[in-house]
């Protein structure tokens, strides 16, 4: 008789059974109990194994979550750093643009001044060229006058050989017999250094 059927028997039915039937039913119940205990033990092993697997997965997930949180924190710090760097770059760019505009203005102003000075120097150079040309003409005229005075002195020396020449006064306060030389210096001779 199966254990399930024995469990449904009442006490009167059990009293009516013989000793052998009761012993057989008891053994059947013991075997059934052993089988249940073995099955329960196997189930507990499976449950424990499953729990160990789940615990290992949970620990792995916690480690992964921790690493992800650390990576997330690093990314946040990196984003903050990059944002600060971007703000500094924009500020520096604006400062460089302002400096470039200021430098360009200064350069344009200096270029204008240099062009004005260059124009003045060119005008002064033209004036010096004209003055040098005038000085050259004056020098040529003076050289010609000196050449004429030399011819007259040679004529006077020849006439002195032919006869005595009375002393004459040149009217310039010099001693007798001396002829006043023409003024060969011009007020503009001091400017000959410009030639």
UniProtKB/TrEMBL annotation:
Main location: other
InterPro entries per UniProt: CCDC85
Superkingdom in the source lineage: Eukaryota
Stretches with biased composition (Basic and acidic residues): 186-195
Protein keywords: Cell junction, Coiled coil, Developmental protein, Tight junction
Coiled coil: 19-78, 118-145
Location in the cell: Cell junction, Adherens junction; Cell junction, Tight junction
Recorded GO CC terms: adherens junction; bicellular tight junction
Pfam families: CCDC85
Family statement: Belongs to the CCDC85 family.
Protein name: Coiled-coil domain containing 85C
Protein's organism: Oryzias sinensis (Chinese medaka)
């Amino acid at each position: 008789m199966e254990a399930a059927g024995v469990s449904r028997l009442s006490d009167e039915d059990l009293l009516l059974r013989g000793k052998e039937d009761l012993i057989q039913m008891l053994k059947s119940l013991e075997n059934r109990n052993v089988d249940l205990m073995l099955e329960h033990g196997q189930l507990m092993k499976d449950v424990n194994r499953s729990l160990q697997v789940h615990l290992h997965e949970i620990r792995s997930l916690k480690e992964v979550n921790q690493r992800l949180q650390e990576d997330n924190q690093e990314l946040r710090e990196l984003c903050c750093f990059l944002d600060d760097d971007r703000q500094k770059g924009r500020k520096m760019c604006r400062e460089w643009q302002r400096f470039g505009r200021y430098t360009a203005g200064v350069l344009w102003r200096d270029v204008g001044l240099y062009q004005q000075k260059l124009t003045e120097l060119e005008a002064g150079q033209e004036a010096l060229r004209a003055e040098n040309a005038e000085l050259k003409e004056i020098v040529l005229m003076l050289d010609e006058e000196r050449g004429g005075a030399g011819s007259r002195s040679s004529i006077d020396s020849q006439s002195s050989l032919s006869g005595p020449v009375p002393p004459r006064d040149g009217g310039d306060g010099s001693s007798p017999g001396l002829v006043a030389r023409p003024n060969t210096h011009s007020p503009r001779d001091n400017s000959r250094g410009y030639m």
